[in-house]
Amino acid sequence: MTQIDVSLGERSYPIHIGLDTMPVLQDVLSRLGARGAVAIVTDSNVAPLYGAAVDQLLGEAGLWPRLCVLQAGEENKRLDRIEWLCGEFLKAGLDRSSIVVALGGGVVGDVAGFAAAVYMRGIRFVQVPTTIVAQVDSSVGGKTGVNHPLAKNIIGSFHQPIAVVIDLTFLRSLPDRELRAGLAEVIKHGVIADAALFEYMEASAERLLAKDLAALEHPIRRSCEIKASIVAEDEREQGLRAILNYGHTFGHGFEAAGKYARFLHGEAVALGMHAAAALAQEIGLVDEAFVQRQRDCIEAYGLPVAWPEMPVDVVLEAMQHDKKAVGGALKFILADGMAHVIQRKDITEAQTRAALEAVREGRG
Ligand code: GLY
After folding, report:
1. Which of 87, 128, 247, 270 has the fewest C-beta atoms lying within 10 Å of its C-beta?
2. CB distance 152 to ligand 1 below 6 Å
3. Which of 16, 124, 185, 295 is catalytic?
4. Across 228-254, average pLDDT
5. pLDDT band per the 50, 70, 90 thresholds, residue 325
6. Is 211 an annotated catalytic residue?
């Protein structure tokens, strides 16, 4: 069992990583003084697999759990689900001292976390992420929220969990496509902050895609360490934290242009990283060898690096809605070498278009 601390003063919390960590969850809850009612928020994919076991575990710990099951899928990340959850919390008798357990992937964590952020003006919550994306990214750092029909993640709050409990054994039931998409975020952590992690990802595709849990522990732990240190320095994304959005400015455009059905988030990020590398080459920050190296790594995980039928204008338009557009200028995170990225707000539409054309044509 590994513990990583997210240092945020009085809002600091541990991330526990290991195999069969559910007794740790019991421990964490009892050390945090959990008593009485507790809500387990999960979804219709995870509930049949782990809902009853976690419910029983918390019951055995003397708590009164209420299982709140959301429909699975990004389209359920919406405001009316928050109202529904608050109703469930009320019916369960949750008060200001109660704890919410978010058991699931990124959508569950974001929705449950936001419901915990606003219920009674904020109650505590624990993240128990069951997917790679959630384990290496969304469960750490306190971003919670829901989508608006016009933009993703536009309604939300920074609300840090009081603990993150990562059980690698959950990954055994993760569909392959989700596994690959989640590993895109690990590749991202390598490119932005850790050349050795990137090399590990280059060398380990076979073992990681075979769900070798011993091989998965290292990149998950390293990703959590990287994310924890970035969040500790810049909790509210005033500067440094934006580097976690590498591949996301293009990625959000791809997701929207694909009507959120064409790509999983991690797939769009993989394609977005390739577009970002093409853009970095276009403006002279990196050479072709860098673009090719990143491309090879992305492809080794069966992730997309080309989208031949991409409507460039639709992607460009969708990118304008990105909430990270500041004062009308899009902010791009671009590599200028391995494990080194910079932020640029001076990229022209022509340069953005050229990078998108490269991705459409499978160049780079
Ligand atoms: N997923 C990016 C962040 O948490 O800032």
Report:
1. 87
2. no
3. 185
4. 96
5. low
6. no
**Rounded mean pLDDT, 123-144:** 98
Listed in sequence order, the residues at least 6 apart from 260 whose beta carbon sits closer than 8 Å to its beta carbon are 74, 75
Ligand 1 close to Cβ of residue 140 (< 6 A) = no
Rounded Cα distance, 128 and 103, in Å: 5
Q: Check if 247 has its Cβ closer than 6 Å to any atom of ligand 1.
A: no
Q: For ligand 1, say whether the CB of 66 is within 6 Å of any of its atoms.
A: no
Torsion sign over Cα 260, 263, 264, 265: negative
The length of the chain is 364
Pairing of β 13-18 and β 163-167: parallel
Residue 230 has pLDDT above 80, yes or no: yes
Which H/E stretch holds residue 226?
Answer: helix 213-233
* Active-site position among 10, 121, 172, 309: 121
Question: Ligand 1: which of 133, 227, 233 to mutate, most ligand atoms within 8 Å of CB?
Answer: 227
Q: What is the mean pLDDT of the chain?
A: 95
Relative to the CA of 140, which ligand 1 atom is closest?
4
Give the model confidence (pLDDT) of 266-308 as tens digits. Answer: 999 999 999 999 999 999 999 999 999 999 999 999 999 999 9
B/e letters for 218-236, b = 16+ CB within 10 Å, e = fewer, are ebbbbbbbbbbebbbeebe
Task: Confirm if 17 and 220 have CB atoms less than 8 A apart.
Answer: yes
Ligand 1 centroid from CA 52, angstroms: 30
